[in-house]
């Protein structure tokens, strides 16, 4: 089993920045792709960003491209989401997820990810 715990969410103003962290425990996760998803009230969970196990590839949703950056530190079993130029439409619960598959690809589909954190709320006021 893998446990994922997100942190770093909060209430910010439009234009501000936040850095989310996700810490994995339970099993070694350094060989698996991971990602960030978000879910706003009344909307489906959507892909935000993904990163391969070696940080060799990253992929972003169009809505955050150029504003968000995903990184990981396998020595700490952590991934991060640096969010800049936040806008009210970025308001959502943000989840980190682990894709339990040996692959060097990134999937945007939630059902490809086997483990999820509990989420951290990000609220951006205008």
Describe it:
By secondary structure, the protein is mainly β. 0% of the residues lie in helices and 47% in strands. It is built from no helices and 11 strands. The strands form 2 sheets. Strands 2, 4, 5, 6, 9, 10 and 11 form a 7-stranded mixed sheet that branches. A hairpin with a 6-residue loop joins β5 and β6. It is globular and about 40 Å long. The termini are far apart. The model has no long low-confidence stretch (mean pLDDT 95).
Offer a concise description of the structure.
Helices cover 0% and strands 47% of the residues.
Helix/strand class = mainly beta
- Following the backbone from N to C, one meets helices and strands in this order, namely EEEEEEEEEEE
Number of strands: 11
The average pLDDT value, as a whole number, equals: 95
- Fraction of residues in β-strands: over 45%
- Tally of individual helices: 0
The Rg value, from CA coordinates, equals 13 Å
Helicity, as a percent range: under 10%
Low-confidence stretches: none
Largest sheet: 7 strands, mixed
Categorize the overall geometry: globular
Distance between the termini: 40 Å
